[in-house]
Amino acid sequence: MVPECVVKARAYLARRFPFLASGLFALPVVEDPTIPTAGIDTRYRLLINTEWFETLTVEEAAGVLYHELLHILYDHFKRRGSRDLEVWNIASDLEINDSIVQEDGLDLPEGVVLPGQGLFSWLEPGHLAEEYYELLPKVKDQKRGGSGDGGGEQGQDPDPSKLPGTMVQGDGQGEGLSDSEIEVIRKRVAEAVSEAASRRPGSVPGNLERWARGLLQPRIPWEKVLASLFRGALLRARGRQDYRLDGRNRRQALSPVVLPRLRAPEPRILVLIDTSGSVSDQELGLALGEIAGIVRAFGVPVDVASGDTELQTFQRGILRPDRVRIAGGGGTDLGKILESLSQKGSWDVVVVLTDGWSPWPPSNPMPRATVLVVSWGEPGPSWAKTVLVKKEERGKK
Fold this sequence. Notes:
The chain is built from 15 helices and 12 strands.
């Protein structure tokens, strides 16, 4: 049962920023009196000290929920790497709270850390968490038992566990979300943010709009790739033109006789996502971003499949990545999956998004289709076209 104070704050935030609703309502809420305020754990659960939360105004409580959601959207858990968790908490809070105050217009409770204020008056606004982390020698020196002043004001640094909104280790108990589920949520929110920004310019905070644009930007220049690799396939598709009687030929003017018009069918496209255990959650997220690029480049819906050693999901007519369902996590046999898909229909173009670690059959299981393997690891088979995504391209935010 979600506490009433959280229900009200969540409803307020969803009304204020409706493009966040899909992410906001996806997070499991757990009442946890052992934490002083609120936080997100490594299983992506929203932990709430209800007694503290009830002392906040609805506006402040909504600001806390927004703060926690930004930890997830900004991927702070993975961006931390091997950095000290307590110092990283402060650094990521500085990044988030700065944008909330400067651009988002939401209230935050007293006690939050802000660059340019209080103990951190010596820090300039506008930095990323990684930059703030390197600018916090005082906190890191204290962790090592040192006494460095770091250029800050005199006084004790805040205890990250008592800050209004922080990241904590999960206890392994209760319902949580997987990394794969979180990647899908991040893509879904980014799509909603992007759509809202294009429909009503100025309605989305600038930091969220920049984040969504960076997340959804495809790594592959699909217009160029498709023009060079798929010209033959597209010509074959357009060569299937035929006559139809479901509309008036525009050249017949006012003739009472309905003449058939020529129809050029749209190219049929299939995207296969490798969901085997060797594919990381970040790579799955990148694969979903590439689907948006393919749809924009072709201007038509695509069919999407996912699988590991077996075909796991298959959907027709996808226009948005947030509608994609993926499943898997086992070994890899993309050739076997392509054989299964060949029984479901025929396509002009098949795009396989993979790390390349798969056995391949000696010949194309879909001989009538042009197959492109987009790989961030090993190249595809000789009968397919291959585009290798460089490591530095994978790491772009």
